[in-house]
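Hi there, hope your week has been kind to you so far. Please have a think about how the structure follows from the sequence. I've dropped the whole record in just underneath, so have a look:

_____
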Amino acid sequence: MKAVGLYRYLPIDNPESLLDLTISKPQAKGRDLLVRVKAISVNPVDTKIRSPKEKVEEEPKILGWDVAGIVEEVGEDCSLFHPGDEVFYAGDSTRQGANSQFHVVDERIVGKKPSTLDFAAAASLPLTSLTAYEALFEHLAISHNKSSNVGKKLLIINGAGGVGSIATQLAKNVDLTVIATASRQETRDWVKQQGADVIINHHQDLLSQLQKENISDVDYVLCLHSTEMHWANMADVIAPLGKICSIVETEESVDLGLLKNKSATFSWEFMFTKSLYQTPSMITQHEYLDAIAEMVEDKQIHATVNHHYGAINAENLKKAHKQLESDSTIGKIVLEGFD
């Protein structure tokens, strides 16, 4: 089968950074599904895994952790899906990715594709929506009960990215006031379209900008850009007993002591944790994706495709990686079908 992968971890401008390959078609066993890949999305995690390092692979490494496709086969222990089902999912970072014509994935982290979306739009949703859903409703412990959220405020740092775009919609769907950061006019316009109530600039002091909006503090912060860069600002704006969640690993130490007097909580969100450690809660990703599909079908949230780079091949994936590495991407990048 056709696939796009690598043997060496190289800068994206290197001709061998991503290669068109032919590899063996996998089989579905146990709780695995074999999925015919129809469309994929590209995320920062793809570029981070591909980033230059000395390691050389004996077998090709396949990237790609955002998929929409059709179930081709099911393993003997499967009970959630059947051949012919249309599905979407973000996969498992410990296994081969889905930049290939067929892909195997544990059914417990797969959802039913929203019936109102085509495959490309559906492929834009799984990783960002799962990340946003877990961050908001597990780590920040935001209530699904709208009446409990009246007057409560969520600050999203980097609102125009893939996770920020979905997190804004999910938060508005439970009646939170959403403050999103964006620095360029095009990103400000984008976050407004996703439903943000207030827009501020993450390159400037956050607290003074909030005070100009008559906001003294926020109940929740979701950090989607450079945790250490924004750490002091987050500590300044978080309310007493508030909660902060970040998805961005730190390159430098941060001072947790800044949160002590406010008894504020900090937590990480990593969408791959449940599959990485095979946690008992792994099945929740299936449940969350099904809930997200229902919200899409009910027009409570929408897909955030902003770039369609054509067919799934090395040339187009290199363009997608280069775009993501520019740190200026708005919304999601998708590719669809094989040449």
